[in-house]
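Re: export button greyed out
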Amino acid sequence: MANVTFRSITKQFGAFTAVNDVSFEIADGEFVCLLGPSGCGKTTTLRMIAGLEQPTSGRILIGAADVTEAKPKERDIGMVFQDYALFPHMTIADNIAYPLKVRGVGQAERRRRAAEVAKNLSIDQLLDRRPGQISGGQQQRTSVARAVVHKPKVYLFDEPLSNLDAKLRLEARSFLKHLQRELGVTSLYVTHDQAEAMAMADRVAVMDRGEIVQFGPPLEVYRQPATTFVANFLGSPPMNLLSVRYAGGAFASSTFELDASPFAGRLRDVRDGSELTLGIRPEHVRMGGEGDRWRIPGEVYAVEPLGPESLVTLRVAGALVTARLFGDDPPTATGAASFAFDPAHLHVFGQDGRRLAAR
Amino acid sequence: MHQRRTILPLRTGLLFLGPAALFIGAFILLPFFWIAGVSFTNRTLTGATAANPQFVGLQNYLKLFDLSTFMNPGQFGSSLVITGQFVFWSAIVGQAVLGLLLAWFFYRRSGWVKESVQTLAIVAWIIPDVVVAFAWNAFLDYDGGTLNWLFGLVGLHKVDWLLAMPLLSIVLFNAWRGAAFSMLLFSSALGSIPPSYLETADVAGAGPWQRLKDIILPLIRTHIVTDLILITLWTFNTFGPFLLTGGGPAFKTEVVSVLTYRMAFKYFDFGTGSALGMVMMLINLGFALVYLGLLRRQGSSR
Amino acid sequence: MRVVKHVLGRVAFYVVAAVFAAVFALPLLWLVFAPFGSRATLSVALPDPFTLSNFGRVFANTFAVRALFQNSIIQAVGTMILVTLLATLAAYALSRAPIRGRDVLSYGLVLFSSIVTGTAAMVPIFLLIFNLGLIDTHMGVILVFTGGLLPAAIFIMRDFVDSIPRSYEESALVAGASPWGMFRDIALPIVRPGMMVVGVWTFVNVWGGFLVPFILLRSPTKMPAAVAIYSFYTEGGTPIITLTTAYALLYTLPVLALYLFVNWKYGFRFFGGIKS
Ligand SMILES: Nc1ncnc2c1ncn2[C@@H]1O[C@H](COP(=O)(O)OP(=O)(O)OP(=O)(O)O)[C@@H](O)[C@H]1O
Ligand SMILES: [Mg+2]
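Workaround output, generated via the alternate export path:
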């Protein structure tokens, strides 16, 4: 009913293109996270949906209605800002009820509905205070309450958790996800925190320099990153990437050579002598031994015990490769060591950075 | 990055801007061009030339710059010299130095002593001109004035300040009156210096004087330039001396603003008054351009 | 040795501070004492006998009372309202509307207004008011003060509006407010402290302003206190000092009260900066 559609949206600020020919559709009731590094155009995308920014070209639809030219107030949207933007001169109750007030809802009814929403969000004991007199987490909930009180068609969130400390952030994350499920309202959530996006979203849209490079369910994006950019952006630590040369049926670097025959299907169109990038997630890397066929040698660079797991980093052919080791005690040795892995987990990216899919 | 987004539509914005623009157009832009026009006429307040002023070309200006009388008392040249001395001694030396001393003396201190002294300076700055003039009239009085009483205490001869040293009187008066502005500006400039800079200097073994010269002054250079230009502009344009001395005795304190007033509103010679106003504006413009130039140079040297 | 040096340092501090204090206090001392004495002298002395009769005589002078409690207030409050209102609207537009060259405009305004000062432009200002038929009216004085003070007021106000995050207004717009509703409900209340500061600044400037009413007003019934203060004379033509000082004190009180108010409410730091 209230799906959001972007049709070839481009936004330019002067000569600078902030959003470049972006198209996507968010289904009714779906929770989509827009993920990308700072300055990639996430906020601009969100603000175009809210009507705070006009696209340079393209169309935006909410439901069946074309809202490209509509004013913000005609779009029926609830938005949570990064700094919450609670009005400092109003009480919490008045803040929450403001969208009702501008819609001409009467005083008593406003108060009742604000109290109801506040109760759902466990901030009902704060209704008569002012924004300056409540904590950051409570401010965050207040701004969520204000965004949902008038039952809008679409929720927009612009990094709503980035001003909270780590512990509150985890709490608020599950709370927001729960709330969205319960209310079932189409939502677009902007963040540059990949863990947040993975944890919350039905689908993740990864953005890079004004373009959406991948749009899919979190695990799909994680497991089958479309490009080296996505591979590098998701996961902590991110995927290991190694530059190699494809020659004579093998991947070669200055210090190792790997048999490329299991990948023959993917490499059909790759010319001999091409520069490729291999990718493997740290959790798929283990310490290697003489018997391992898929092995890369290197020098121990750092060992970081984290409790349940350890990170071991080797310097391999000039690059750093990290392994996440669970359970075992981390190696104490310095000097030469090697990593091993299962080729089923190895990703191959072409010269243009795109992942070569198995065919 | 500096980001700007539209909140108010352009039309509404122009509507909001309109009334203020009207006022500024009428009372700042219009006078500027009007004064230029009037300064080329022999317009007076009353009489035939009030209704039908004649174009007299550069005559008003030539009169101002008539070299045979230029430096006579009550003439433009002598008034300019008086104004120059007044501005130099009362603003640049008096206000700026006094303000800097006050700011520096109380820098990194707090407590009631600082509060009281700074409040006194601010009070001197904010109370109305005429009241200050009254107080100073009494302060400088020959017989009962507080200053002469103090002179008596330390065994000095009484001075008839307003008659014998009129220029010094208005210099002291204006320095006293305006020091608070420089004090506030320098205080906020000093407050913006990270303490670690000075601590580094302390650790390196710098004395208070070296600290001022090597660390503080270079860091607040922009503020000093701003301060000097603003107080110069204000002092050059102030009408305050009129309230203390009326320009006398014998035109000895007739700064350009007071001369303009005398020409225009005592002699009702609007042509000459406008020519004087025009020259004042050109001098103001000069100050403003120097200021912008200095700011730009500083901006690019950073 | 250390202790001695420390003590000497403290003593030196207090001595220098006392000198500074004396420099600023001494010229004002007479003004504080004289209104409460019965004899007219120009020297500083504790009033003996202490009397409030001077104030009584000031209040008996209808001309002086009207100047202070009517004319000065009409002119200062009138200008204050106009300047605050217009400066707020203009500053808001300059900060939030896509007006081309708004930075140049703001700076240009302040620059121009410091060139076309009241003293330099007294002739055309007089002629302008004369041609508008507003000589010897409160309106004339208010208009001239408004024009003169607006540029700096806009500048101060714009600084203030610029410091307010746009997300306040944006969230009001997204919540469904119309631009005007957003301005009234959200923007205005948030910029109110800035308006207070500009209002106080304007009031104080007009309250103390001498030249403008001096050249634009004729009839004694319209004079503000700044000009009327020269009206306590004996029949022989010498000023009556006791009355004048009592009047001066009354005239100064609102300014001091406003200073204390601003200082208490916001801390008198640097917005007082641009005082013309
Ligand atoms: N009004 C504007 N004028 C000029 N450039 C702008 C404007 N708004 C955004 N930009 C530029 O467009 C790009 C995208 O901005 P946007 O705010 O969408 O980034 P973002 O992905 O939200 O980044 P962040 O994670 O830092 O919030 C940035 O390079 C930004 O500088
Ligand atoms: Mg952003």
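The first helix of chain B runs from residue 10 to 38. The button fix ships in the next patch.
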